[in-house]
Amino acid sequence: MSRSGSKKKFTQADQADRHELYQKSVQAPEAEVEFMDKTFEALRGRKALSMKEDFCGTAYLAVEWCKSDPARTAIGVDIDKPTLDWGLQHNIAPAGTGIASRISLLEADVRDITEPKVDVTCAFNFSYCLFETRESIRHYFEQARQGLNPDGLLVLDLFGGTECEDVLEEETEIEGEPATYVWEQVSFNPIDHHMECAIHFDFDDGSRIDKAFTYAWRLWSIPEIRELLEEAGFSKVRIYWERYEDTDDDSDDMEGTGEYYETDEVENQESWMIYIVAEA
Known about the structure:
Rossmann fold; single chain
């Protein structure tokens, strides 16, 4: 029995913000903006100014997009209002009125938003993989194409590799935080490629945010996505693979450089993440 007036001792997990930890451990908006910027200019010969971030979550990327050029605008679309509200309070408002005035957040199904037309629509962190049938994902791609300017691009990411079908956990320390990011592949069904994953955060004091985020989606392959984009009416689909280089140690390990190049043939790896660019 505790004495009257005693206070509960909060753990590091109790005091942590899962959205902030997610942004620090998973997202890389500066790199994503740089890729979209360079790729659009290389393919279209002009600068992309308008962007729609589907499944935007906290709109972290939308803010970075508008920070990169004073002429840029962004639309963030997500179906989860509490997450949008968090992004408005912690990302958009602190960026200042100059940035905030150029960002529109919409609580909506991404398939319902086709206006106004934009130069680039993106769906990152594999979010579109929640569409698990050919019909549903093709419909999303069709709607995404409808929302693009005539020379617009749809930019997606996708993951895979020989270990992506395994049940496993990967741990990564979060820089500047007393916490470790844990990615868990909980289950995988080889018959329909349905997989379930979870993100946990472990803290130095032994506490944990268990299942901070959970995912249920289909592990689509590159040729499936490419074919479905073409069926949805995109004129060309390009695959951008990350360039790898040898590590400094004596092992055979390769390390990603963060640079992506267009290709049609590569050797498979244990784990990879690519960009897929579809031209309207």
